[in-house]
Amino acid sequence: MEAFRMHYIMVLSILGILISLSGYSPQVYSKYLILNYL
Prior knowledge:
The chain is an all-alpha fold. The protein contains two helices and no strands. The chain is flat and about 30 Å long.
């Protein structure tokens, strides 16, 4: 469970970098994350 949480945080930080680089809206990425992880 702890390993999954660390992996999730790492993925979120990478996506945050991609968001700031590409300029996508956070709403699009939050929908994408929700669809992937649920």
